[in-house]
């Protein structure tokens, strides 16, 4: 944060008459893959800490965050309360959910893994069943395609310095079309778009039933039912055996039916939709992580590429229509693998 921006932030906080802050306690809380940064500040009586979002207006707009937070809270989700806002300068004052992400909780309390995921799945079902979607953009074909094209531009072109052959481009176009068609055929509900272990904050004490607060929802859309489930179960930051993923997916399917969500009646078909949606998402993520490194200088995201690639290969190896994607990956990585197709 520049000295000028820090002074702007402190001046704004000092002018909030409903609060008395100890500005000496202002310290960095976290940052994310965007240009947003977060700070924690204490009230003078030390009764509580609050979070300040710093989103430079030339880079980010805080208004979508405010709108979606209100939609989530209307539906009963545990989104942070927006206590004050200065949209013109790009500052928000938010409820503080603490320091512990779900991911950190999973590492610290491995015996709670199933409880954490069951809670996150139930919260997701409730969010999808109860969050209004009025005013949210549709997760349409153009957006889905634009996201997957990041794979071509940044992962293939920039990360590997490779060019797609005409045949590879035709193959990819066909695969992208299949993935888009599957996504649009799913029931369309509230989609967080980054519902994963780094964006769920563990708000309960160790030993208590897990409770989560949800963050980073400003890009929410109305879109495919399976999208957020893929985000949490095929998370780019933590990996589980396929049998465990399948078990949690079935639990989600059962909870969704109980909640009255329009999920398909055949769990096998839903798992296919889940696979296809995951492939769309992970092609996008490969492009985004490559872009974060090559454009934004955030090299730490390269550490997460191997896990995302394993997800891509898992699904591409399961459906014969995706074999060309495996061939492309093999060319990029200069290796060959034996593939057994099941569908």
Short description:
The chain contains eleven helices and nine strands. With 343 residues, the chain is α+β, with helices and mostly antiparallel strands. It has two domains: 93 residues, Phosphorylase Kinase, domain 1 (2-Layer Sandwich); 232 residues, Aminoglycoside 3'-phosphotransferase, Chain: A, domain 2, CATH 3.90.1200.
Q: Residue ranges: pLDDT <50 for 5 or more in a row? A: 336-340
What is the alpha-carbon Rg in Å?
Answer: 21 Å
Compute the separation of the termini in Å: 51 Å
Question: What is the 3D form?
Answer: globular
Approximately what portion of the residues adopt beta-strand conformation? 5-15%
CATH superfamily of the largest domain: Aminoglycoside phosphotransferase (APH), C-terminal lobe
Report on the biggest sheet.
5 strands, antiparallel
CATH C-level label of the largest domain = Alpha Beta
Main sheet strand line-up: 1-2-3-5-4
Number of helices: 11
Give an account of the 3D structure.
This is Phosphotransferase. It holds the Pfam family APH. The protein is globular and about 65 Å long. Helix 5 (141-159) packs antiparallel against helix 6. Strand 1 (21-31) and strand 2 (37-43) form a beta hairpin. The relative contact order is 0.11. Residues 336-340 have low confidence and may be disordered. With 343 residues, the protein is α+β, with helices and mostly antiparallel strands. It has 11 helices and 9 strands. The strands form 3 sheets. The protein has a 5-stranded antiparallel β-sheet with strand order 1-2-3-5-4, with helices on one face. The protein folds into 2 domains: 3-95, Phosphorylase Kinase, domain 1; 102-333, Aminoglycoside 3'-phosphotransferase, Chain: A, domain 2, CATH 3.90.1200.
């Amino acid at each position: 944060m520049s000295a000028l921006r820090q002074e702007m932030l402190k001046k704004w906080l000092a002018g909030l008459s409903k609060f008395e802050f100890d500005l000496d306690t202002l310290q960095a809380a976290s940052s994310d893959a965007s240009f947003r940064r977060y700070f924690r500040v204490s009230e003078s009586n030390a009764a509580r800490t609050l979070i300040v979002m710093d989103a430079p207006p030339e880079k980010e707009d805080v208004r979508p965050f405010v709108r979606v937070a209100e939609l989530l809270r209307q539906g009963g989700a545990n989104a942070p309360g927006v206590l004050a806002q200065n949209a013109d300068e790009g500052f928000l004052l938010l409820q503080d959910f603490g320091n512990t992400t779900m991911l950190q909780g999973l590492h610290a309390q491995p015996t709670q893994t199933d409880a954490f995921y069951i809670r996150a799945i139930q919260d997701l079902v409730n969010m999808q069943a109860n969050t209004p979607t009025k005013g949210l953009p549709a997760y349409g074909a153009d957006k889905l395609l634009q996201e997957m094209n990041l794979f071509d531009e940044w992962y293939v072109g920039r990360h590997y310095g490779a060019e797609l052959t005409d045949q590879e481009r035709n193959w990819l176009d066909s695969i992208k079309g299949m993935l888009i068609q599957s996504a649009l055929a799913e029931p369309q509900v509230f989609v967080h778009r980054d519902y994963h272990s780094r964006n769920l904050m563990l708000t309960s004490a160790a030993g208590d039933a897990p409770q989560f607060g949800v963050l980073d929802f400003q890009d929410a859309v109305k879109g495919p039912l399976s999208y957020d489930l893929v985000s949490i179960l095929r998370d780019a930051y933590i990996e589980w055996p396929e049998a465990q993923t399948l078990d949690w997916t079935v639990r989600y399917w059962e909870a969704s039916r109980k909640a009255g969500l329009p999920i398909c009646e055949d769990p096998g078909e839903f798992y296919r939709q889940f696979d296809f949606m995951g492939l769309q998402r992970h092609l996008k993520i490969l492009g985004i992580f490559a872009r974060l490194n090559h454009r934004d200088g955030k090299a730490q995201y390269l550490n997460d590429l191997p896990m995302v690639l394993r997800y891509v290969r898992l699904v591409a190896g399961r459906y014969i229509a995706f074999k060309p994607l495996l061939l492309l990956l093999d060319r990029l990585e200069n290796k060959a693998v034996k593939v057994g197709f099941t569908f």
